[in-house]
Amino acid sequence: MAQPFWLILVVWGDRYHDGYINEIAGMTLSLSPNCRQVVLVTDRDRPGVDTRVAQVSFPEGFRSPEMFQGGYPGKLAMLTCPGAPGDMRCVYLDLDTVVAGDVGRIAADLRGPGEVLMLKAGTMGFNALSRLRHRLSGGKGFSTGNSSVLAFTAANGRALADRFLALRSDPAERNRKHMTVDDNFISWAAAQHLREVDAGLAVMFRREFLSRLPGYARLKARLPWVRRRREGLVAITLNGMEFKPAALLALSEGHLLRDRKGRKGRWSRADMGSARDRIAEYCARILETSPRP
Fold this sequence. Notes:
This protein has 2 domains: 5-196, Spore Coat Polysaccharide Biosynthesis Protein SpsA, Chain A (Alpha-Beta Complex); 202-288, no CATH class. The chain is 32% helix and 20% strand. The chain has helices at 18-31, 104-108, 128-136, 154-168, 182-189, 205-209, 216-221, 224-231, 245-249, 269-272, 274-288, and strands at residues 5-11, 35-42, 53-57, 89-93, 97-99, 116-120, 145-153, 194-196, 202-204, 235-237, 255-258, 264-267.
């Protein structure tokens, strides 16, 4: 069932120019009839950003320089969902995300107010076994996800943000493994309520189109149910410095892609289907809006 939702974005520094923000906001508003608001948590006013985007400063507690180093715990400011009613569903997307469909489908997949949806990153994922491991280890063992795509209610997000700030104020807690990286904190703090974002809704580019197994990425692309699933994707995140717009747009058809973890795959319509064209079109729009030297 369709549900109203807010899109939350976060930016600091100069890595992502205004074109990234306008692209993701514009596509979401165009393709998602139930998007009620787009909020950008930012370190400064950005006059080139679409006026439909509400810009808000990083909240108190998330502004110190160390919050934007290493594992970027400052990114957790997204959990504060500035201005959103407590029961509002919120979707967070990294700025280097290709929006290809109705983002409201991700928001609508939340099954309860305490649940958090997160991209799978490890082999175990989020399931009964991972929750048992977390409980039996006293919180030391947990499956880590990827925060490029998240969904949660505003009240639940704020509770997680408050917990982070409370723990960070304790010298004995602030440098623990789950406190220094945003992915780790969410995976740890919400371990009992995490569920994977459906792979029919959102994927990481490198995990979806590349593989460590020789030939598997090409075989996978030819499976009819995989082709159908990819046709319905809402979001594709381009996390990883090797998969940024300028680099991808410069590739020739059939180019062999590699990531730093040994995954390989081909940049081709045969291996990626229509997703290849949607990603290329996204990359072209980003480059068109890049600041000129």
